Amino acid sequence: MGYKKLILLFTLFAALAAKAQENKFAVADSTAEQLYNAGDWKQMIVFGNKAIADSVDFPGLRFKIGYAYMITGNYKAAIEQFDQVLSNNSANFTARLYAYYCNTYLNNDLGASYNAGKLDTATRRSLKLSPFGLIDAELESGLKLPNNSQRDNGFFERIGLSNRLSWRLQLDQSFMFFSQNIFRSLFYDKDADKYLSGKTDRQTEYFVKAQFGVSQQLNVIGSYHYIYTTYRGSVNNSNLGLLGIKYSGRFVDLQADVNFGRLINNTLKQYNTRLNFYPLGNLNLYTTSRASVLNLSGTNSFIYNQALGFKAFNKTWLETSVTFGNQDDYLDADGLYVYNSIDPTKFKCGETVFYQLNAHALLNLNYIYEKKADIYRSVNYNQNSVTLGMIWKF
């Protein structure tokens, strides 16, 4: 008889708990609907997060929170909420479309493409994506001004193109050219069989990077960089590769990768970790921290880069960066930029201005100050560089 009473009490308590939980869900759903319809987005976010903390969680609530985050410009947080909706129902058309837009606003082309691939054909057509899979084209032209009587000005040009090979696969390609006259008193040129006072350092380069979206949050990265160098009668063919993985979270993006290969006469390995932090969930404020260990023919160097970017005015962003460490043969931007000039850089800092000219064109002006070491003389000197670039979004 005692056991029957216990079972009856347990059943009664369970029914009351279920009823209470059901009432909590109903109240939460009703309140969220009122806030959503009223467009009270800040209160919608506060209420929704508190409800989830109180174990009241369902896809409709997540969608409304995500939409409120998107409207208020926190695209990172919005993506997290839409992902929760899609994990319950991957066919939710509206959540998928909004996730596409949020990734686009964050310049995450592969994340946007991943979501676009899961939309129907008519919707993808309405997004006006390039029929050839083109994403963007880039142009850069730079001038390097060394404060050294034995170094002439350096010139750098780059043209790049990004395109979508599939909804999960993105390919970036660049062609680059660099030249600089090097003056040095009386060095022997074996080809000319005489002593000369100057030579030109010329480099022609090709770079290709592939990114594959395992999921919206996880990407696998691979790149290859070929460099054809001529200097003092010598010709060198350098081949460099990179393998890495990148994870996109609510406030941060994390990446780990390794560069490897042979650069002129040196065997190179470079291990990198990078953290991008978006405290507001958008590009109005962000930081990038990158730590690298460069092993150059058995010699290790530690290099650290820190950047801070923010939206200063309407259509205008500023980004400040500083790099510490011996940057002799240092590789940056997933292996795109290779700092293998004649003289190694010991310190670097710079400022970049981005200006959104229109819906397609983004202009950028970059200034860099470098402290460099002359490899032929025991002197240091300063170098100032200016680069003008444009990105055209298709």
From TrEMBL:
TPR repeats lie at residues 59-92. Residues 1-20 form the signal peptide. Keywords: Signal, TPR repeat. It comes from the Bacteria. SUPFAM superfamilies: TPR-like. This is Uncharacterized protein. It comes from Mucilaginibacter ginsenosidivorax.
